[in-house]
Amino acid sequence: MWPKRSLRSLGRIWKDFVRNEGGNFAFVLALSVVPVTVAAGGAVDYYRQTLDRTLLQSALDTTALILAKEYSASITTSNGLTQRGQAVFDQNYRQSDVTTDPVKVTLTSGSTQTLTVSTAGSLKASFLKIAGISELKIDAASTATWGNSRLRVALVLDNTGSMAQSGKMTALKSATTKLLTQLKASANTDGDVYVSIIPFVKDVNLGAANYAAAWIDWTEWEAKNGTCTGGGRWGNGSTKSTCTGTWTPKAHSTWNGCVVDRGNSTGPASGNYDTNATAPTTAIPATLYAAEQYSSCPQAAMGLTYDWTALNTLVTNMVSSGNTNQGIGLQVGWLSLVGGGPFKMPAKDPNYTYQDVVILLTDGLNTENRWYSSQSSIDAREKLTCTNIKASGVDVYTVQVNTGSDPTSTLLRDCASSTSKFFLLKSANDMVSTFETIGTQLSRLRLAK
Predict the structure, then answer these.
(1) Residue 370 vs residues 135, 206, 220, 265, 337: alpha-carbon distances, Å
(2) In this structure, are 123 and 172 located in the same domain?
């Protein structure tokens, strides 16, 4: 109990302080400084905690992926995994203000292999020390599973003449090369990742060496490529329709490999084969690919393979020429994932799950097509192709490289499987970072958080 005299003295002191406005203000100000400082500074500390946790998660994701890849190759013991995991983590996480526990690596074997990498740590608080909080805890974990998931990717790449402008073709080659490196690195064993590449312009090149294949329709090609004899001075035409004499088509071996859109609902036979992946067959002529001797024929398409050297060689040899028909590139890219015609699809092992992906990159708007002359009509066919691809379970990424004044492509935006998988680029160099982003996403398809 306080003595009554002491209580009366304390009461007088308080009354005097209240009457003293200057002292009152100073006291209140002093009291308010502490919570304001804690609140403002605490926000800074919590932001640092969030940032460091994000960086910690990223480092563990990288560690898990690398360990999963290396496990099947060389590292098979628990000690080896832990030591390697710590080394990889240390290379990817260097926050001087965070103290972390040793990395813990857990491996579970079964029908699939599951590898979990985790750690916890603490961040030294700065402002929150005032409130008695000296450190903030952070922790994260990442799990990589492999053995039952495989990836197949079709790269549908614009090789038209406009790609020669603003350094776009150079950037595309660099971006694609780096993407191939990422995809190769994400494979634990051969066959985990397959890639096809479909360069497109107005036409797609399905390989001149395939001139004897049954999936080619030569009707239009033979009518335009040949020799007219015996027609007289005015009848020696350059096409079958203008020749009044004898028309002799050139040998099919002189074909340069280019084909145009397949039959559609308004063409010689119905079936919308320009928008689907029905395998070409002579029983249905509209499913065949019509040969064309297009002067701007691009590099020949390459079907699914893990021959990374051959894929990179194709990319190196790409050149810019010709007009734009995104639709045929997209349709052929889809066919490369399911097989048919020039594409032999590697068998799928029932013990694995498969993720099929199409990545379409273009810098222009549609200008040409076998059946249509207006962009709106060509776009309508491509839109139908996009709808069909997504309905089949294929994941679609679209990239519009808009270095000029073209409007944002609603077609490409809607073609993507989600808005996050549509990329609008304003610079050629953005292709490199965008493909890197996509490559990271694809590499993590087997990464379970």
Answers:
(1) 67, 16, 11, 13, 23
(2) no
